[in-house]
Design goal:
heterodimer; B: mainly alpha
Chain lengths: 252, 267
């Protein structure tokens, strides 16, 4: 079956620095994949290249079979994203922002779709509120509503729950899981919250210096590498363990 | 090019204008101030020289048309700056939106806002100073068109420079009309300029407009060849500005600037 996202031999080189180094992976329909790594590991660079706002030095990216560099419009029509560092214009209301982005994506029956999302994400009370006046949690929900406008097959989430309270974070996780399980959407999710990743993701990839250092099921990966928790495993990697130190533990 | 995407860019600007008197007021206020200032000045000159029509027609008409060019340029750059100030490039360009659609949205916004300003200018000039544009006849249309296209070109080129050099480069953009005005021969004939300035003047479509306008007011008639040259030049500038914006965008995508557009200046 055609993967929803196919990344092949992707690299981004800045001078002597390889921000992303020969990265290859795929995401299948309905799969939630976590992209983990320290700050500067290459997570956001990877997401930006998938979104077509950063040109790879080499490699290919295909969304639903559409090459992002050659068929950008078709590829980006079936994806969407949410990132804490890219808030929606704060001087437009929730409804105005959703309408503008809905028109950009060419969403059919836009008013109805907006109504559904405003209801689903509990934004009815903020319909006419300017986004800049909303709390972090409310803004995250608006971003997620925007990301769902075009019913994307691939959702890119760059730290969607960063700097928001546990209740809002749980709410957002519930929406993402529902998007994947009930609607068959695929998700590439970056996060520094290991509990969240373990809870939500079907598979994780740990990046270091632009390369995949480890990949697997977040529920079994720690044990496979002799660690009690995913966070412990991640911290070990953060301390620059050599790859051989992270070799799988032999099973009895 | 998809109309719904261009409309989305225009709609965003409409929402901003609708909810913000501080954005609406400048569209009319500076225009009105200029007309009033120069209107009284020409009224004073009328009293001194006793030649009413040529001075009013030349000076006030020139002020009005130069203000129009400035408004067209600012209509495009202001629409672009809204995305600079709200750091909205990543949100827009991570969608199927094409650069051509984005530019078209800025241009349509520039057209609409500058036309509002033009109507206000004409009304004030006509009601307060009795300036009638009938003196120019149909020649006014090509004049306005040339200034319009040249204003769009300046606006798009200004937006490209800010995209390339970062938000701090904004200060480079505002003085562009003032820097060009001595060369555009807004208030005096090109012949009074020194040779090197005339060379630059010949490269600016606006200078042909003001030369042509003075010729008509002075009874010299409308020179079709000059109008065609000015139109051709303006279109070349427009094509050059669009090319510049596309080139800068490609550089920005290669360097990652679009994704992290918030730095004060990026080399």
């Amino acid at each position: 079956m055609l993967p929803v996202l196919s990344v092949q031999k992707l690299s981004k080189i800045y001078g002597d620095l390889a921000a992303v180094d020969n990265l290859s992976f795929e995401i299948q329909r309905g799969e939630i994949v976590g992209l983990l790594g320290l700050n500067g590991a290459g997570k956001t660079t990877t997401i930006n290249m998938i979104l077509g706002v950063l040109e790879p030095t080499q490699g290919t990216i295909a969304i639903q079979g559409h090459d992002v560099s050659r068929a950008r419009e078709a590829a980006l029509s079936c994806t969407n994203f949410s990132a804490v560092y890219a808030p929606l214009p704060g001087n437009l209301t929730v409804e105005q922002n959703l309408r503008v982005f809905g028109m950009i994506y060419g969403v059919a029956n836009l008013t109805r779709r907006m109504g559904e999302l405003i209801e689903e994400f509990g934004l009815a009370a903020f319909r006419q509120t300017r986004c800049g006046l909303l709390s972090s949690g409310e803004q995250s929900r608006v971003l997620l509503a925007k990301a769902m406008l075009n019913r994307p097959q691939l959702l890119l989430l760059d730290e969607p729950t960063a700097s928001i309270d546990p209740a809002n974070a749980q709410d957002i996780r519930r929406h993402i899981v529902d998007f994947a399980r009930a609607q068959g959407g695929s998700v590439l999710w970056t996060s520094h919250n290991m509990y969240e990743v373990e809870d939500v993701c079907d598979r994780i990839m740990i990046l270091s210096h632009g390369r995949i250092l480890l990949a697997g099921d977040p529920k079994t990966l720690p044990e496979e590498h002799g660690k009690a928790t995913l966070e412990e495993l991640f911290v070990e990697i953060a301390r620059d363990l050599a790859p051989r130190d992270l070799a799988p533990v032999a099973k009895p | 090019m998809k109309l719904h995407r261009v409309s989305a860019i225009v709609l965003r600007q409409f929402y901003l204008l609708r909810g913000s008197p501080s954005r609406i007021l400048p569209m009319f206020a500076w225009v009105a101030i200029d007309i009033v200032l120069w209107g009284f000045f020409t009224r004073y000159l009328n009293g001194v020289t006793g030649e009413k029509a040529p001075i009013i027609g030349t000076l006030l008409g020139a002020v009005l048309l130069w203000d129009f060019l400035t408004r067209v340029m600012q209509g495009v750059t202001m629409a672009f700056f809204e995305d600079v100030w709200s750091r909205n490039f990543l949100n827009f360009f991570a969608t199927p939106l094409r650069v051509s659609e984005y530019i078209a949205g800025l241009v349509v916004t520039g057209i609409l806002t500058s036309l509002l300003g033009l109507v206000a200018m004409i009304l004030v000039a006509n009601l307060v100073f009795d300036l009638s544009f009938a003196a120019y006849g149909l020649a006014l249309l090509p004049f306005v068109l040339v200034l319009f296209v040249f204003g769009l070109a300046l606006g798009i080129a200004g937006a490209a420079l800010v995209l390339r050099f970062g938000p701090a480069a904004e200060w480079l953009i505002w003085p562009i009309p003032a820097i060009l005005s001595p060369f555009a021969c807004v208030f005096y004939p090109m012949s009074v300029l020194p040779g090197w300035m005339q060379v630059i003047s010949h490269l600016l479509p606006a200078s042909y407009v003001f030369e042509g306008m003075r010729a008509i007011v002075g009874g010299g008639g409308f020179d079709m060849a000059t109008a065609a040259l000015a139109t051709g030049l303006a279109l070349i500038y427009l094509a050059g500005a669009v090319w510049l914006f596309f080139s800068v965008y490609r550089i920005a995508v290669r360097s990652g600037l679009i994704a992290r557009y918030s730095a004060e200046a990026v080399s």
